[in-house]
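This section describes the prediction task in plain terms. A model, or a person checking by hand, is given the sequence of a single protein chain and must write out its three-dimensional structure as a string of tokens. No templates, partner chains or ligands are provided. The sample shown here is typical of the held-out split.
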Amino acid sequence: MTRWDGSDIPDMSGKTAIVTGGNCGLGFESARALADKGAQVILACRSLDKGEAAVQEISRLSPAVLPRVMQLDLQDLRSVSGFTRSFRADFDRLDLLMNNAGIMNTPYGLTEDGFERQMGTNHLGHFALTGQLLEFLRKTRGYRVVTVSSSGHRAGRMQFEDLLFEGGKRYTPLKAYGRSKLANLLFAYELQRHFERHGIDCASVAAHPGASQTNLGRHIEDGRFFRLFKPILGRVVQGADRGALPQIRASVDPEVRGGEYYGPDGSFEMSGYPIAVRSSKASRSLRDAQRLWQESERLTGVRYGFTS
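The expected answer:
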């Protein structure tokens, strides 16, 4: 079996890509790989300073095209709207939107719009961003949206009567994270169904990195479970460059099809080379996907307005 890696990334000259959270971890490695193959990459970052530092690091590695930094705070819908306005003013095409940015296992808190932070950042912010960039679907054939989920989605449960853990009641960091990552998959699959229903030549694909060494897990590293199993985890956790391969493959491989989900090929999908994998039964619920879509439009005020 052929093992897909960075050498399989095709020429990306003339293509434009947005990578949310492109200043660090999986996003940085994805942006670096795309820029190295000639794509104009926009690092959509909450911190402009961190974004510029990432550009300097990528510059040191001599990319074919130097990335550009644009400010985006997924915890603030006004920032999402501002980003899309700025992008629209400066660009006339978009080939790839990589919904990569995320937070994990954080204490209870709210976004600027009053959403529970993990759902607000990981799903609702990206839902709003994707919807506001929908006009580029009409301009760019083969447009691809890649949404980064997690194996943690398997622990997620959708409870629409209390989707955002109102007031922090019944909130636990892991429960909220699992729900937000399940939402990522429900969204990605439903977006693909919209594309197919309306005959749009675009693909919505999902991916997960397995166990990767990034700063995403900083809120659990002091926990008892992490300390107990750290020696074992150290043998299976892969670097961010390897962890980014599933989302990179989902973004650029011409053989990838909409509605697929990519992850590592190793045991329990913890590490390895990227292949198409299968997500949980809950992630493939049509009823939950449609309900989440309706709730997401209501909460964000962003309506996709697909037309044939």
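For orientation: Residues 33 and 141 are 22 Å apart (CA to CA).
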